[in-house]
Design a protein that fits this description.
The complex is a heterodimer of chains A (352) and B (212). Chain A contains two helices and 16 strands. By secondary structure, chain A is mainly beta. In chain A, strands 1-2-3-4-5-6-7-8-9-10-11-12-13-14-15-16 form a 16-stranded antiparallel barrel. The longest helix of chain A has 13 residues, at 2-14. Chain A starts with a helix and ends in a 7-residue tail after the last strand. Chain B has one domain: Exo-inulinase, domain 1 (Jelly Rolls), CATH 2.60.120.560. In chain B, strands 1, 2, 3, 4, 5, 6, 7, 8, 9, 10, 11, 12 and 13 form a 13-stranded antiparallel β-sheet that branches. In chain B, strand 7 (111-118) and strand 8 (121-122) form a beta hairpin. Chain B is globular, with a radius of gyration of 21 Å. Classes of the chains: A mainly beta (352), B mainly beta (212).
Chain lengths: 352, 212
């Protein structure tokens, strides 16, 4: 896979293509560099800088009906860069009226963070609920996804998807044929807000039954509201709340709830200040005698962002994490996180 | 009338307190604590059971929950095994230590071998190189139950070991040495001892950034 990635890069470079040409092909590369330093503990941060991800993205029209997207990404895992296929799909917004679809490998179209590449997130690392329910980067699979604009007087888009489900979350093996493949849906509505703002609200559902008969069901709500002043994003308010029900065979079902809330305000046209509130709890957690255990993990991350343009981002955040569970001393971990991301070439824009 | 009611209340209190003592006696016999970690005796009767040691033939489940089913936990354990005996660490199991990931350490002569089980699936036995079963053994074990098939890692934790808990330094890595047979489906952990003694056992979360 690493060789294939290098061959692809060399081929593209040898063609002398620029960021866009008459064929409509757009090529871009994105790099995500992060660093973290422990403040009051020894092992909540790595105390080093790493290239977390490097991605090459090719998009463009295949013909007058279909579009295609291909991306490779290299991630730092166990200190070694590991290149792999990220997304590869064919789709169309022209074939079926009021609809779009894609077939191939892609990040599942649920939630807010899961539909964006990690280097485009408005904060440095995945909130706990994203990491636990979707993986640190997001849930990726191979399948078919269809979105239709429902003919109503207001904006309403319905998405349905079906994917193989051999694995879920980050995995280094092929996985096993599931009892029921991954299937999901999202219902989203957009509403203009006063003072030139706009907000999108999504209701989400996802389910899969693994080969060992463990059934996982996710219910979630995602929300994003934005107000712009010229090129600057003056105010951003983003949030997701998810509940997961895990039903293994022969043991009790487990329910967990997590959410994050991220308000951010522009200080100048290029600098922004936000605070991420991250919360996660296992519902109805009991000890072996059946005694209910209160538990939760919370994080507060004030985050300062500098964007010279849409192509570069520098971030600095201070993480205060609290882990509380009955019978245990509350853990308090603090660390400093930093991030630098850049894009070179023509990266496609997201709708909202 | 008043005296009758009072007698009935008194009688009721006496009966309740007798019943409570019986429940306490029964549960106290099945409870224990190993260096502050409380546990329940699931099966067997250990030959020795105190705050510093549990020895003999017994199955114990620790009272604390691991947190959630798809969690990654690190265990430290100090134990010794008699010839032909074994000690089994059970991770991510239910309250009676079923439906979990089982790591069975067996002694034959001076060698300690490991076999992992999930339900009816098991791996072949692997001898843990450099571990002498003739003396007390200190290990650190990680069970990453959030991964597709629990990823198991084991290191020595004695004075001679490097104490570098990275994958390349592991004594055993299920991704390289023996593919894990599956995942645990519960939130509890414990041990099954057979001609073995356990002098230390604790669990903690695997640091986030380790091994990734």
């Amino acid at each position: 896979m690493k060789s294939l990635c290098l061959i692809l890069i060399c081929f593209v470079a040898s063609q002398g293509r620029s960021a866009g040409d008459a064929s409509g092909l757009k090529i871009s590369a994105a790099v995500d560099i992060i660093g973290s330093v422990n403040v009051n503990t020894k092992d909540s941060a790595r105390d080093r800088i790493d290239v977390r991800e490097a991605e090459i993205l090719l998009t463009g029209p295949i013909d007058h009906v279909f579009d295609g997207l291909l991306s490779f990404a290299a991630h730092s895992e166990k200190g070694i860069a590991r290149a792999e296929l990220h997304e590869a799909f064919i789709g169309s917004t022209k074939l079926i009226p009021r609809s779009q679809f894609k077939v191939g490998q892609y990040f599942l179209g649920v939630g807010r963070l899961n539909r964006f590449h990690r280097h485009e997130w408005p904060f440095i690392s995945a909130p706990k609920v994203q990491e636990k329910f979707f993986g640190a980067e997001g849930a990726l699979d191979t399948g078919l996804e269809y979105t239709v604009l429902v003919p109503t007087s207001f904006f309403l888009a319905a998405t349905l998807g079906l994917s193989n489900g051999y694995t879920y979350g980050h995995s280094h093996n092929e996985g096993e044929r599931p009892k029921v493949p991954t299937h999901y849906g999202r219902l989203a509505s957009y509403q203009a807000l006063p003072l030139g703002g706009g907000a999108e609200l999504g209701l989400n559902f996802l389910q899969r039954t693994a080969a060992d008969s463990t059934r996982m069901t996710l219910y979630g709500v995602d929300f994003a509201a934005k107000w712009r002043e010229g090129p600057a994003l003056n105010v951003l308010l983003q949030s997701e709340l998810w509940v997961r029900v895990l039903e293994p065979k022969a043991t009790r079902a487990e329910k967990a709830l997590g959410f994050y809330l991220f308000p951010q305000k522009a200080l100048t046209e290029q600098t922004y200040l936000g605070v991420l509130w991250d919360y996660y709890t296992v519902l109805e957690l009991k000890d072996v005698t059946g005694k209910h255990l209160q538990n939760n993990e919370q994080k507060f991350l004030p985050t300062l962002t500098y964007k010279a343009s849409e192509f570069s981002t520098l971030r600095l955040a201070y993480s205060l994490a609290y882990l509380a569970q009955d019978g245990h001393k509350t853990k308090n971990e603090q660390k400093i996180e930093a991030q630098a991301t850049f894009i070179i070439g023509a990266h496609p824009a997201h709708a909202f | 009338m008043k005296n009758t009611i009072l007698m009935q209340i008194l009688l009721g209190l006496i009966i309740l307190s007798c019943g409570k003592d019986n429940v306490d006696e029964g549960s106290t016999a099945r409870e224990g604590s190993l260096r502050g970690s409380k546990y329940l005796l699931v099966a067997g009767e250990p030959a020795e059971k105190n705050e510093e040691k549990i020895k003999g033939e017994a199955a114990i489940v620790f009272k604390e929950a691991l947190g959630e089913i798809q969690s990654d936990k690190r265990y430290t354990m100090v134990f010794s095994v008699e010839e032909g005996g074994s000690i089994r660490l059970v991770s991510h199991a239910n309250e009676t230590l079923e439906s979990g990931v089982e790591l069975n350490f067996t002694r034959q002569g001076a060698e300690l071998s490991l076999q992992t089980h999930v339900g009816s699936q098991q791996t072949s036995a692997k001898v843990l190189a450099g571990v002498s079963a003739t003396k007390e053994i200190a290990l650190v074990v990680e069970a990453h139950n959030s991964e597709d098939k629990t990823h198991i890692l084991i290191w020595r934790n004695d004075n001679e070991a490097a104490l570098d808990f990275s994958e390349h330094n592991a004594l055993f890595n299920s991704e390289l040495d023996a593919p894990s047979p599956g995942n645990g489906k519960g939130k509890f952990w414990g041990f099954v001892l057979k001609q073995a003694s356990l002098t230390e056992a604790s669990s903690s979360d695997v640091p986030h950034h380790h091994h990734h």
